[in-house]
Amino acid sequence: QAVHLRGEAGIGKTRLVEELQRQAVDAGFACHKGLVLDFGAGAGQDAIGALVRSLLELTPASDEAAAAAAIEAAMRDGLTAADRRVFLNDLLDLPQPTELRAVYDAMDHAARNRGRQDTLAALVERAGAKAPQLIVVEDVHWADGPTLSHLARLAQTAAAARALLVLTSRLEGDPLDHVWRSSTGGSPLLTLDLAPLRDDEAEALARAYVDASAELARRCVARAAGNPLFLDQLLRHAEESTEGGVPGSVQSLVQARLDHLPPADRQALQAASVLGQRFAPDALAHLLERPTHDCANLVRHLLVRPIGDELLFAHALIRDGVYDSLLRSRRAALHLRAAEWFAPRDLALRAEHLDRAENPAASDAYLEAARGQVATYRYDAALNLAERGLALARTEEQRFGLTCLRGDILHDLGAMAEARDAYGAALEAASDDTQRCRAWLGLAAVKRVTDDLDGAFDDLDRAEGVAACLGLNAERARVHFLRGNLFFPRGNIQGVLDEHQKSLRLAKASGSVELEAAALGGLGDAEYARGRMLTAAERFDACVALCREQGFGRIEVANRPMAAIARIYALKLADAAAGAQAAIEASTRVGHKRSLVIARHTAFFCAFVRADHAAADDHATHALELARQLGARRFESEALHFLGASRYAQGRQAEGLDLMRQGLAISRETGMAFMGPWLLGDLALATDDPNERRAALAEGERLLAAGSLSHNHLWFYPAAIETSLEYGEWREAERHAGALEAYTRPEPLPWADFHVARGRALSACGAGRRDPSMMEQLERLRAEAARTGFMSALGAIEDALRAL
């Protein structure tokens, strides 16, 4: 069950929860609590992190070694999913080891959020299997988006696990609206609205304060108007004071209670209010410029209470009242002291304290803090920090840095339209050529994703001119890498090769290992593009190895399916299939849809060549769905064609031809240089229309002659050979075999060698030529097909052997 306690500030939500916890403990429940703070929650102190620590039986004081040991224990005891470890490290704010950093780096934002939420849910389910659990999260009216998403997932979990989830919030600003409730998947939420105390209840509470006179108690009850916190504080003030007056508000009441404290305690409480609702004694000592300050008197007056090794204001309203009692100059000075304290400890809190001190360094501090959050993939927090820093920016340099970083974050979140606007704004704010270069690179990266290739080329030309003049090697490496990627779909093979070679050279000159890894992958693409598949495999393998060593998961995941594709052309079909499956699993785990499409295509090739048409159909279906989700028309064209080929091979010829023609139509829209000849070759093989067949073969050859990516040569010519054999055009079959052989002469390929030998042998056999070595050649081809799993090529060979 999930329960939502709602009420105005001071109405008694926390008191009710405390009583619930007491009864829960008596009933055998394990209790866990998180508190959402409006200010002052440092790294690892958020409500969700507190719950995770509690569920793992860690205390706020537990160090990294204790946390690591708790994770190991949890992994042995129920958290069997391999990825749980990476999310637990994140939730506990622990550093990721290299191999896990690679996994996390490769994930998209949605996959990281989903993984964190699922891991917390798994912890609750694991704990619930041992004992019923009470999970309390207070003050969710201050919760940010990610926290609310975690709570929605917890509400779903509580509906099925041995757990009771209790959330508290104020009526004003209650975030658990119909949108949030719909995100829980329909899990029940019991909402309890707490009303003010009735007069008889308030009088009963007042009677507990024996030192208060009946008349003063009645005046306190009347003034409190049923708010138990206000009444409690009024009565405590009456006990402490000899004055007979009754303060008229919480603010005046807090001020009156402050006035009755010794000066040292009053100063300490005011300094503590600058740190937020929860504060650490050593931070308070720094603000007071005293080695220690004993807060025991503040605890005795029930103004603060211990919470682990830290202290918590008895209520947020008390903290707010104390904070408002500070003079503006004193408040600013204390915030500056706090910023000094947090500078080596928590960049985000440092920035927030500089902000509240109205210090001009706040904007730069927000930029530094946002970069720190990006480095740990906390994009929501980074975006909030960058936007706050932007609101405070006073100089063009500050505006540029924060706007450009905002573009980077939005790009990584997949919000391309917003990222393009941000980079455009950064370009307007740029004050020198180095900044303009960075903005142009950001714009080019966005336009590449949105298929504005001409615009991307223009931006790269501008960036390259500036980077070359200023000797910016890292920026030049990025220019050439992006341009090489843009040349690939246009079929500019020499351009792909030249650009990635330049990128690798400049990456090494700049000392950027990450740019070097990206360039190695780009060179793999270049070798792939020109048909040097064995060299391409070496490049892709080197890229993947470097990424694993350095933890560049995003680059690794993008290149793994390409490494598998290259093995198909080496006729290492079992290795290719295993690599494709591993790439599918890795891409799925991290939510990298683009690489998942390519991995599905790779798996399709392996299954199709092995004549496993059901599996091929499944991979093509998934690839088509993903391509449409991405809005990637080139991938949609491929997937439609592959699905059509698998349907045709399963005997559904009309349906298969229709799908193949749909794929070809999209290819004509997006550019035939990418896959046009491949699609035309397969269409020629499938169609019964002789005019369509001849036209498809003729157009395919024209496109190949004009320049085309290698996969077009490596699939068009085998299809053309097969088509010629099908219709008894023996010389055409041999001509196409010769063309394939000539294309792969610079780096012979087992794939091409097999198709050439098979085409020539079957052509000779069909033409009636009986060379003494014919039988031996066909036997060798049959053995090769069986050994490699090339089952789709086997039937015609066996037919020829039977005929001989």
Description:
By secondary structure, this protein is mainly alpha-helical. The protein is about 70% helix and about 5% strand. It contains 41 helices and 8 strands. A 5-stranded parallel β-sheet has the order 2-3-4-1-5, with helices on both faces. β3, α7 and β4 form a beta-alpha-beta unit. α28 packs antiparallel against α29 (about 555-570), α37 runs antiparallel to α38 (about 730-745) and α39 (about 750-765) packs across α40. It is elongated.
Q: Give the termini distance in whole angstroms.
A: 76 Å
Global shape: elongated
How would you state the average pLDDT, rounded? 91
Report the major sheet.
5 strands, parallel
**In percent terms, what proportion of residues is strand?**
under 5%
Uncertain runs are none
Share in helix: over 70%
Instruction: Please tally the β strands and state the result.
Output: 8
Helix vs. strand class: mainly alpha
Please count the helical segments: 41
Which radius of gyration do the C-alpha atoms yield? 34 Å
Major β-sheet strand ordering? 2-3-4-1-5
Short description:
With 804 residues, this protein is mainly alpha-helical. Helices cover 71% and strands 5% of the residues. The chain is elongated and about 120 Å long.
Feature tags:
about 800 residues; about 70% helix; five-stranded parallel sheet; 41 helices; mainly alpha; three-stranded antiparallel sheet
